[in-house]
Amino acid sequence: MILTPEHLVIAPILIPFITGVLLLFFEDRERRLKASASILATIALLMVSIELLQISHTDGGRVVVYLLGNWPSPFAINLVLDRLSAMMLILTSVLAIPALIFSLGRWHRAGLHFHTLFLLLLMGLNGAFLTGDLFNLFVFFEVMLAASYGLALHGSGLLRVKAGLHYIAINLAASLLFLVGVSLIYGNTGTLSMADLAIRIPQIAEENRIILESGIAILGVAFLIKAGMWPLGFWLPTTYTFAPAPVAAILTIMSKVGIYVLLRLSLLFFGEEPGISGGFGSPILFFGGLATIVFGIIGVLASQALGRLAGFSVLVSSGTLLAIIGLTQVDITAAALFYLVSSTLAISAFFMLIELVEREQSAISNVLAVTKEAFGEGDEEEEDEEIIGVAIPGSIAILGISFVACSILLAGLPPLSGFIAKFAILTAILNPEGGAISSASWWLIALLILSGLSALIAMVRAGIRTFWAPAVALVPRVLLIEIVPVVMLLFMTLALTVQAGPIMHFMEATAVSLHEPRSYIEGVLKAPPAAPWQMETEE
Amino acid sequence: MGSVLAAMLPANARNAEAWLSGGVSIAAFVIVVCLYPWVADGEVVRYVIEWLPELGLNFTLRVDGFAWMFSILITGIGFLVVLYARYYMSPKDPVPRFFSFLLAFMGAMQGMVISGNIILLAIFWELTSIFSFLLIGYWHHNAAARDGARMALIITGIGGLCLLVGLIIIGYIVGSYELDYVLEAGDKIRQHDLYVPALLLILMGALTKSAQFPFHFWLPNAMAAPTPVSAYLHSATMVKAGVFLLARLWPVMSGTDEWFFIVGLAGMSTLLLGAYFAIFQQDLKGLLAYSTISHLGLITTLLSFGSPLAAVAAIFHMMNHATFKASLFMAAGIIDHEAGTRDMRKLSGLFSFIPITATLAMVASAAMAGVPLLNGFLSKEMFFAQTLEQHRASLLDGVAPYVATIASAFAVTYSVRFIHTVFFGSKPEDLPREPHEPPHWMRLPIEFLVLVCLIVGIIPGLTIGPYLHTAVVSVLGERTPEYNLAIWHGINTPLVMSVVALACGVLFYLVLRNYLARGADGPPGVRSLKGKRIFEQLLVTISWRWARWMESHFGTQRLQPQLRLVIFIAFVAGLWPFYSADLHLSPPTLTEIDPVFAAIWVIGIISALGAAYQAKYHRLAALILMGGAGLVTCITFVWFSAPDLALTQLLVEIVTTVLILLGLRWLPKRIERIDNYNTLTVRIRRYRDFLLAVACGGGMAMIAYIMMTSPLPDTIASYFLEQAYPKGGGTNVVNVILVDFRGFDTFGEITVLGIVALTIFALLRRFRPAPDSIEIPEQQRIQNAYDDASANREIGETVRDYLWVPSVIMQWMFPFIILLAAYLFLRGHDLPGGGFAAGITMAIGFLLLYIAGGTRWMEDRLHILPMLWIGFGLILAVFTGMGSWLFGFPFLTSYFHYMEIPLVGKVPIATALFFDLGVFALVVGATALILIALAHQSIRSHRTRTVEITKMEEDT
Amino acid sequence: MELILSLGIGVLVGSGVWLLFRPRTYQVIIGLALLSYAVNLFIFSMGRLTINAPPIVQAGVEIDSTTFADPVPQALVLTAIVIGFATTALFLVVLLASRGLTGTDHVDGRETER
Amino acid sequence: MSATILFWAITFAQIMLTIAMVLALTRMIKGPRAQDRVLGLDTLYVNSMLLILVFGIRTGNTLYFEVSLIIGILGFVATVALAKFLMRGEVIE
Amino acid sequence: MNHVADFPLWMAWFVAAFLIIGAGLTLIGSFGLYRLRSFYDRIHAPTLGTSWGTAAIVLASIIYFSVLQSRPVFHEILIGIFVTITTPVTFMLLGRAALYRDRSEKNPEVPAMDSPKSILDELKLMDKPESVYLESGERE
Amino acid sequence: MSQLFPYPLLIIFLIIMWLLLTSFSLGQIIVGTVIALVAAQGMAALQPAKPRLKRWDLLLKLIGIVLYDIARSNIAVTRIILQGNKRKRKSGFMTIPLNLRDPIGLTILAVIITSTPGTAWLGYNFAQGTLLLHVFDLVDEAVWLDLIKNRYEYFLLEIFE
Ligand code: NA
Ligand code: NA
Prior knowledge:
The complex is a heterohexamer of chains A (539), B (956), C (114), D (93), E (140) and F (161). Chain B has 956 residues and is mainly α. Helix content of chain B is 73%, strand content 3%. Chain B has a two-stranded antiparallel sheet with strand order 1-2. In chain B, strands 3-4 form a two-stranded antiparallel ribbon. By secondary structure, chain C is mainly alpha-helical. Chain C has one domain: Helix Hairpins, CATH 1.10.287. The complex binds sodium ion (2 copies).
């Protein structure tokens, strides 16, 4: 077998896929096996992603192209590895491992096929990050969404199903918009490869431009729905609140997929050429982002349940990123990437923490109770091995510290990475390339400050209510394997802080290559197919 | 230096903790002291670690005289507080947490003063806010502590965030965040356009932190903290951070009108109000808190003047205030500890119980009042002198001396009150505890601090002089003025002011004495106007009521508005480009209109409209009409050369219809005349929806029309058409695209189908029908009842009669359907068909058997095991794709070859066929799984019903 | 023909959108089905309309690609049909689950007054 | 000549079949009972099948045959399901 | 229609005739479906299309393609066979369902169930108003 | 052998269908046979009653008769539909007792009756062996009874029992 390093590019898609499918051949009660298989798979995924990151970061940034089916560009569906996709891959697996470990506490027993669905979600995410083909992106979006539907409904229960129904309905509408947008783009340009599109879009004839833009705008709406832009993102907090905690933790990166795609496509399609379509839609992204931040702030403040608070934090994070993409400026993009990583880790940890904290008192346990009384046949498995949470000594302290850490991260206070991210963004905004700081930027700054403040107020309020106010100290019954993931993620943010220098250096490089997509385009279009068949197989 | 930060090691034992903390702070203190030789020479000790060089954020520590002086205060008083706290804290308190927070706070504070990078400074600044929050809220079972902590954090947090922005602006102006550069760039900063915003933001930070009016109210509420915390935070550290920053940036920011007016106004009002409020406090710590506010106002006022001498005075007063206030807080703590209350209305005559503490407290409060021979006097004299100077020639300047004198008088009043009320007068009655002197070690810190007050007050030049000078030089540099720390400057205006203040102060006390002894807490007149309450209400209003209101008005949790928005925005987005530019259209290329096709679309349109119209009350009709629209879609595909699509559309159509029918059984009955309400709002909403629907339809029609009539660009399709056979080995280009050119899409697509099947299966395992649909359908009830009532019939005969003949045909169709599936599958690569169509066909075959025979009958004979089909299909597809690795080609590279099979002839063997086989298996499995899982719900509900009936019978 | 088809697509979209806004889950699912017809036709129409030229080539014959219907949109539609089928099925089951748990077939899981 | 004959015959047949489809649709719309609508749908299926067959003749292309065949073999499944639903309230028991 | 340029004339007549007959029968059948007044009458009409309507068009197709491709093409016969086999299933099931529904509503135009006569009356009484919906039209 | 070829007639039909769908060539016969065998195995799993054909010749004759009858009734029904309300017509239900019990035989009868315009099979009472028929033009019940009993059922009884 001749496996060149290039084949590694597809590994992030195939590893979870194969593992997930193989797990189908085993009974669901063989949990130990399923759990270890999926954990191993995610660890492998992490290792592969790290390797890919190194590959992408060598020689001043390599673009590795994988031509599926060995067809030449732009006819083949291609996978493209560059710094950005490698980074997103790592982020995915970094989130996946803790979420998976967390789920072993109880969630993976709450319904069927948890591990398969989880792994296929990872496949969808990784595919979406890697693919260089617009329609293939749709397909991976659907893989990802389908798995997320399954996981968001995992364990069933009244609230979850109600939220799931909305989630699915809206995303189905979004998928239809996606299709309309893609087909309009194809109908105007005759191609689907993103790199090829980047070449063809600036050359499009004047009379077709309007309708092409119309298509791109509709496509953009689809992504904005995923990213949760106001007023398209009302579904998001509800869905995330009622999804099982480990699922919500991994879903935090799903809202970032929309951002990722917007970032990639907007810079690829309109970035370099300042032609007629140049800067298309940036103001909308910017002001939409601002509106989203405002709404996120409102929601954060208005949330009583921690889960909703976290859900709105996702919106704040999305809004910030959208607004920043709308600014289209290299160093802000770099800061945004850092922020993306940091906020994703933080919110992810927070979702898991919330369940631990609220386990004793809240609706989530009711949801579990509802699922327990599910009716009909084949429910025997629910009864086996009731795991009793142990009140570990000091668990409350760890939870408390974790909560403080999450608050600090969300509010963007030092010393964790939330601060570095916010600082980087502010620095970048306040040092614009053109010289003068636009009044729009001041709005963004004000909102950034306000968002930190609102997170602070809301988190303090919630934290006091949860940890300080109860007359009887609450000692949630949590398992070690449920605390460890949270702490892992928080340590990750600490590491981000400590290693801020090199990481920011990487982000800068990523942002620069994003803003100058020539190497991406050429990398894809000039990628040579492997030597033809006859050479090796002719008898 | 790092050791200061690293000292946060929580242990368990109280003593061990105290020792550890004490050790750490004394070690830090020693380190700081050791640095003096360098600092004294005017050198700056630096320690740099690169952290985030891209953004100019480095871990730079920088000790100059000013920082050194503060470090001494922080570590020194820190040590004393630890010592004090060791005895103060109850053995039942979880002290490890306390000490670890305290140390962490100390570290943060220390870090702040020695930061050499203004961003680093902001970081430590925020850390002090966070740790002070934890310290203030240490007794969190107490609601006051929680509120106080929260308020402190929120106020200082707001300030901190503003400060950060302000500092970033400074960094932008200067081009560096390094303090050294910043300090050199004073002129540049003051002349920059962004000076005012930066100043405002930085002042936001500084003034909130040092509790300046109007942000002062958090400080008294922070008194709910344990007294050591108060002593530490409100004397030497937390609140000093604000004035520290003002002093730190004084060289670069001060000297402008804006600076003077903002800082001065804040300082003077704080000075006056704080002192005034302090008089009327009944809580000892409250009194001290307001006095702290007032003294900070004094420092701020000094800094606002912008004159070097004033700065010297400010720095000097920072030190003095730290010493006497720390000792006073500790004394108050002892009183509280011993007497069990801090209410001055209850306390009196304690002198006889705790004479030593009382003496110490008296000296300290004398310093606070500015009595000569104590350190407080010195800096106050300097302050008076400065207020007399004209700085900006304004009203503010004019009133400054009066304000100073009045405030000073107030200070005397509250100091006298403190002493007199607590220690003198009649013996206390009904005290919670019998007071006596505390352990000596607990008193020691106070003794030490009071001693310092005395020594500095008496021989300032010899004691504090050099150190103060070092600090002053490091702040002012070349602008360091001549100043004299002597006690006696002769009889001059400041002295007169002092005397007046002293006299008036005592007088005030005498006048107010009786009122105070009885009065309520808080100053008269504005008692009801509590900052705290205003703040809380503001916070609740904005952050809760308004937020909730806005969330419900700018957001929604209902699905319909969300979908409306999605569609509306998509509509606007799609049409926006048309609006913003003129539409040039190439001349349409049209195909000739065929009336037959037009008539077919009349059918399609009517079906669609009918389905839309009937979907509420006539679900079955809507489903049937939807089928009509699907059929028209299918014919359209046929018409325009897409046989594959037509096949697939048709098959999917059939399955979908059955699927929805399977689901229809569980939906509630809907009766038109009962719930057809028709109010005005409903009609308006319908009208709006209708308009939007029409608009969307029109928009899509327009875009579709424009697209269809404009020429096709040069597409990738020509490559596929040309290479499908030579390189893909198939003549059906669509199929070759699906399994080869773009096989990866198909790979993802079957994954979606598989996932959905799994999800449906999992969800239906937990399915619970609504109570009103749990019963068997009415038809079956009636028919069974009929069978039951007929003498010669058994239950179930009706259905047997019903299906007897048709099921024979349906069963015998099964092999033919298998053959059809095989046919569609095998020809797919060359002609319309393929794995997907074949798979659905096969699944329909299974479905038909289920309909014909029922679930039990079917499953007694054929076990389909859909899960294995799914797994097998997916694995086959992926392994086929990976097969190409064996030859070094990318995933899904296909290989085809014509194989000569005896008798059969040339047969194309394409790997794509195996891939397609995977597709086939997956589709069969997934579709069957979905259908069967839904069908099984009926049996399950039968079973549940039986169980329920049995239960009921048992009960009766 | 273009006019007819685009009108057809328009009506399908209009009906689908109208149903999408309705409060009953069943209406929504019918609406989604109609919309997916419309979208499939729309994608298909991006290859423009060609009568009697299915993209099925003759083995071993030189191809003039302009004489065939564009196969790419057809392939895309096939994928879209499958995915649409899958998601419709899923939505159906979720609406059934919602109906079972909430007792109503309202999209919000509860009857709203007004 | 034969081309003309065929052309007109095919056109005529197509028109008749389309009218037949419209009539079937009318039954689907009008009802009045569910069974009438189902009957209308079934008729619509058969009519479309024939229409596609005629379309195949018109284009001289056999590629559309399978669509007709599928309607012929499997088109009844939907109708069967509908009928059974009417009779028993459940498609699969 | 270039591909039929050299189509034998008499064959063309055959094809045309079968086409017209088939389409005509189908049209008449659908017309009957549209026009006849009771369901039980209507159920007869579409059989025109499924019997000789289909058969004629299938024959037309067979002849046409056999001539066109100069070889016997018979596969259309499968359509005829399967339509013949499957149509009865639908009509039987549908007719019986309609009968049930009419009977349960005591429609006087249909023969009542064999025995016992009164059973349905009792059921009607037993059944709460919810069965009203059956009368209003659909079981939905 | 009977396990491999459970339903020889069915297999033959399947092979013929395969050949009709593809082409008459040796290769396709082989492929078709393989597929037919698989399909027949699928059928065998359902364990249906095995039909026993006794009289081939009669079956063919019956088919001929039926085709003729269908053509005739096509014309009849066409006429009725086109005439509209001008002619007095009475449609109605009738119950016919049957002797035929073989499921395949009954099925064929059902196919015949339903395929013939003018008659509709509405129900079959298994216990009593009665068939409920709807007749489009029920002028004389006896004619129809005769048609069903003596023309179709007779043949079918001969063929299958
Ligand atoms: Na009975
Ligand atoms: Na008939």
